[in-house]
């Protein structure tokens, strides 16, 4: 189409040029070159027209093909949309199936665990059943023994019933006798109550005299207690004094021969060696032994225990 337009433009240009040339030079004849060009251009035009007609036919056929292809494309697009829908649906289905599979697998695990537990329980129940069967057999044996014992007890019950009837008769007789004895008892109680009133008066007077005597004896007991306590204290004190006197006498007896044996010069010499005065040296010589002090402590403790024991005796008895 563009070539056709170019050629038409050129033709028009040429015609215009020829017209202008014809007006200016009417008498001059057209040149051979322009004729040839005109012929060539006309040939080209014809060829282009033929080509255009061919191309128009091809364009029409192509348009028809394009329309058919567009229809086909639409159909294919519809198919694709359907397929996409189907795909999305199938994906959803697959996801649902996967989730169901997971849940089913979890359920299968739980069901397997429950199955294992149930199998264990079944085993345990089977063992229990076997145990219960053995216990039922033993119970049946016991029941047989119990039925035998029951028959024996029924016989014993009949015997006891007969004996009870006999004892009821005896009881009725005894009840009659009891009524008579109760009547006699009431008479005896009335007489005894009168006697008891008299005795109560006598005992009241005796009790008053006993209470007076008790008061006197309690005073005497208190006096005795104080006397015992004072006596024990005095005894302890006198014993301790005696012990101290004995110790002092022993010390004096031991120190005198020691002093006699030592001369005054030797005492002074010993004092100068020890760097102590003569009086201090005498005190050192008069020091008690550890054994004697321990003995004195033991004796003192024993005296204390004895005093506590004697003071507790009158309180206890």
Automatic annotation (TrEMBL):
Residue stretches of biased makeup (Basic and acidic residues): 1-17
Alphabetical list of SUPFAM superfamilies matching this protein: Tropomyosin
Domain of life (superkingdom): Eukaryota
Gene3D superfamilies, per the entry: 1.10.287.1490
GO cellular component: centriole; centrosome
Region entry Disordered, spans: 1-37
GO BP of this protein: centriole-centriole cohesion
InterPro entries reported in the protein's UniProt record: CNTLN
Stored PANTHER family: CENTLEIN (PTHR18957:SF0)
Name the UniProt record assigns to this protein: CNTLN protein
Originating species: Thinocorus orbignyianus
């Amino acid at each position: 189409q563009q070539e056709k337009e170019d050629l038409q433009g050129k033709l028009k240009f040429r015609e215009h040029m020829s017209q202008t040339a014809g007006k200016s030079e009417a008498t001059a004849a057209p040149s051979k070159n322009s004729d040839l060009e005109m012929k060539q251009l006309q040939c080209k035009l014809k060829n282009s027209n033929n080509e255009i007609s061919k191309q128009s036919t091809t364009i029409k056929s192509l348009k028809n093909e394009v329309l058919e292809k567009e229809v086909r494309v639409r159909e294919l697009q519809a198919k694709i949309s359907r397929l996409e829908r189907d795909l999305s649906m199938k994906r959803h289905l697959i996801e649902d199936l996967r989730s169901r599979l997971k849940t089913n697998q979890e359920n299968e695990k739980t069901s397997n665990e429950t199955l294992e537990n149930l199998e264990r329980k079944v085993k345990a129940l089977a063992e229990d059943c076997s145990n219960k069967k053995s216990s039922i057999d033993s119970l049946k044996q016991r029941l047989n023994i119990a039925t035998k014992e029951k028959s024996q007890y029924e016989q014993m019950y009949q015997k006891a019933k007969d004996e009870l009837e006999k004892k009821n008769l005896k009881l009725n007789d005894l009840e009659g006798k009891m009524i008579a004895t109760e009547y006699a008892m009431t008479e005896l109680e009335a007489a005894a109550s009168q006697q008891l009133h008299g005795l109560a008066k006598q005992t009241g007077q005796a009790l008053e005299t006993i209470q007076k005597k008790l008061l006197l004896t309690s005073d005497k007991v208190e006096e005795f207690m104080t006397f015992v306590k004072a006596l024990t204290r005095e005894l302890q004190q006198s014993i301790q004094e005696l012990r101290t006197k004995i110790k002092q006498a022993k010390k004096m007896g031991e120190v005198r021969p020691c002093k006699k044996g030592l001369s005054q010069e030797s005492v002074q010499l010993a004092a100068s060696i020890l760097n102590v005065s003569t009086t201090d040296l005498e005190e050192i010589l008069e020091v008690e032994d550890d054994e004697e002090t321990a003995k004195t402590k033991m004796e003192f403790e024993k005296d204390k225990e004895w005093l506590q024991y004697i003071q507790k005796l009158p309180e206890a008895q």
